Amino acid sequence: MNPNPEEETESIPLTSMKDGEAEPSTSTPTLPAPVSAPAAKSKPKISTAVIIPIWMALSVSVILYNNYLYNTLEFKFPVFLVTWHLTFATIGTRVLQRTTNLLDGTKNVNMNKDMFLRSILPIGLLFSGSLILSNSAYLYLSISYIQMLKAFNAVAVLLISWVFRIAEPNRRLGLIVCMISFGVAMTSHGEMKFNLLGFIIQAAAVCFEASRLVMIEILLHGMKMDPLVSLHYYAPVCALINLVVLPFTEGLAPFYQLARIGPLILISNAAIAFFLNVAAVFLVGVGSGLILTLAGVLKDILLVTATVAFFSAQVTLLQVVGYSIALAGLVLFRTTGGK
């Protein structure tokens, strides 16, 4: 959650604008922040060696758990699941706000009606679209292939930032764009169970997510929010948006399946996604840009490997080569072209 709850929404920082810390590469629902700022009170510290494995385990668990719900338990209701995750996150962030200092960053945000309507609401609409579409893709595509397609997020963010003129094109970034695009094209060509509808849905999810990240840079430039503070503001907005969409997409069908799924699975699933966002706050605070980038790449590799080992996913040699090229381009983007 993130709160990519349903999957880890990949947080791709924009490039060529300013220097700063890199954010963790997550599927989501972890919310990115334009600027990472310290809270009013010091947060408890966790060493890098401890928080990175925790973050990676939670990130992989969210994706595998959601896939288990969709395809093993046959609970094929991504809109409902996203809505439930966001509702859980809404309650969770407010509990943490009253019992810990993890959300002291909210004191630095001057939230008013104008800011909500002009910034939070439009970004929330894009975020809801990203979450719903990215989760719907799991109904048609394998986890491994979706992770490979997510490598294109960086390219989409960069292209949109060029269109909005908040980053200037240059030859080096252009070559990185071509490198990542070529790698992703190879993985698609090598996919043995390619589904056109699933590909279109995931491509649309990438566009929504990239647009959201660019809109954050435009509308909330300089705003001091960490991932958990962002979740505090966006979760209730997105939950309400999804509640409006739910009757027109899935209707009452998911509610008839709740007794079969049981409260334990629903609560544990949402809790893992929520704790992923908590872990992201500590991760951003202790890791350098290079460490966070490498941790994100390693997490993606482990996730693809796990799907092959435990879910009998089929990955061709062409996909391995293409994904390696895309990941190498992503590392170059993060370490030389991105912050």
From TrEMBL:
Transmembrane segments annotated in the record for this chain: 46-65, 77-96, 116-139, 196-219, 231-249, 317-333
GO cellular component: membrane
Annotated region described as Disordered, given as residue ranges: 1-39
A family per Pfam: TPT
Keywords for the protein's UniProt record, in alphabetical order: Membrane, Transmembrane, Transmembrane helix
Biased composition (Acidic residues): 1-10
Organism: Mycena maculata
Protein name, UniProt field: TPT-domain-containing protein
Compartment(s): Membrane
